[in-house]
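[User] Once you have settled down, look closely at the record that follows, and write a paragraph about the fold.
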Amino acid sequence: MAYTTIDDPSAYFQATTWSAESSGDVTVTFGGNSNLQLDFLWSKCRNVGHSHALANTSVAPSGNYYYLLTDTTGAEDTGTDDLKSITSDGFTAGQDAHFGLSARTYVGFAWKANGGTRTTFTESGANPGGGYQANTTSGFSIIDYTGTGSAGTVAHGLGVVPNVFMTKSRSDSSTNWIIYHHKMTSNPENNYIQFNTSAYGTHSSAWNNTAPTSSVITLGNSDEVCKDSSNFIMYAFAEKQGYSKFGKYTGNGAEPGGPFVYLGFKPAWLMITASSESGQAWFLNDNQRDPTNEITKRVFPNLDSPEGEASGDNNLDYLSNGFRITTQDDGMNKSGVEYIYFAFAESPFVSSEGVPTTAR
């Protein structure tokens, strides 16, 4: 069996940093081995407390790329001076606090789907109408739909069962982010976790206690995933060997000697949160802010706080085939607590030609 089908992950995902040093627009060009025309941008201000902003090319009326914030229940922002244009290898941001305000520094994460080209589906009974743009090579789909208020299904276009999906109402300012992760529990279709509250638990009306299939995701009748006439966005991912991994590990409380997690690639991006204990933050780190080990810089999707830098807590190393927790802290390595993670690659552990990657 091939080691990977994606030798250059930068063709589908890249992390980058930029600064806004003037009162004009900011042009950002990615630095990966391949050009990347993004369809999903996750932006976070590093030096001032602004929320994480998520924008995409599926819902971009009149060329404006509207965005949602991960730490709130708010509806999407419909301003005109935020994410202004997408280029063949980057983007242009206006004077918006979440993308390019003067005297701010930023980190961003970009995924490629299908160049903004949607496949549409119509409402049928309780099944919502909407569309998706999917990249079956990288296992990523952006799904937009209008809720019916009843349990139904939406197509995702991945051709395989998705492992992770996260959804939020674009038009309703009182609903939470709801996230499915296939390793949350032994019955993940009956469970959920949230960005904005870090809450988790049983929620049979989110996914109608029905596992996703290779063609559809089932939605329950909860307002948070299928409120009648509410417009929703969903980001869905399927694991691809050597490129992405969505799993879990159990903390051992040791320092040093924390858990080692095998991914099958050298990470470029890693997000972690506790899935068996409440009150823990989401931790997000990457290979651009910390190009060498230890990984200490992190931002928190459930908070609007600026970037933090660990000092003996929540540190880890990126390795050629995974990551290792290097310190003891409740957020990543409390003994007996289970943690879920979301990871994307800088390079596969072994290429399709059998060439191993180098360590940091």
